[in-house]
Amino acid sequence: MTTALVICGLITAVVAYLFGSISFAIILTKMKLKKDIREMGSGNAGFTNVMRCVGAGPAVFTLLFDFLKSAIAGFFGRFVFSFIEAPDEISKELVIYGAFIGGVFAIIGHMYPVYFGFKGGKGIVTAAAMMAVTDWRVFLLIVATFLILFFTTKIISLSSITCAALYGPYTFLISYFFEYRTGEFPLRFVILTSLLALFLGVFVIIKHKDNIKRLLRGEEKKLKAKKKTA
Predict the structure, then answer these.
(1) 79: Cα separation from own chain's centroid
(2) Which of 64, 33, 32 is nearest to 46 (CA)?
(3) N or C: which end of the chain has fewer CB within 10 A?
(4) Other CB atoms closer than 10 Å to residue 121's CB: what's the count?
(5) pTM of this prediction?
(6) What is the CA angle 161-165-167, rounded to 5?
(7) Sequence ranges of the domains in the chain
């Protein structure tokens, strides 16, 4: 089974990374303005910068497609790992690990896209999609936390950083009380998924280091869509 795990992991990682490297923020901005979104505004190839610099329409499509690419990568991981021959109780674990691998490498591709000089976005939307594919309960907790903070502050970076910090704790609570305590999965599942979530959360926070500096200085801007010119 070890060989099958390595092969399936490599296939999932490579395909997910290549798929995640499709940067819709860059593509849609070039289609609309013939410009590179990374040379505009904050320089980030993501939903927020597209909203500020290009407009609500392209921003919504950026959000949608970035979410879908990570979700597809996660489901691809589930699909690939479902072919590994193992007892039923282990098979259920493996497909979730496959989803994590697919999602994580789609996020890495989004952040460091091979097609665009390894300079991409910060991975918030793609991370949210991975959460939805791996555990919808954690996803709902993250979405609720994000919306409460965003509608209170109107600052996307603050909401995103807080959610990234809470991803690990939320994953632990859900997996421990609803998976391990019910006998659905063993303790190793709780440990592995919590560590993966913690790692990803820290990774996303590090990508927001400039936002954190601006937040500490009180200079981080609230979200506003670009106004249409006559």
Answers:
(1) 19
(2) 64
(3) C
(4) 28
(5) 0.92
(6) 115
(7) 1-134, 136-221
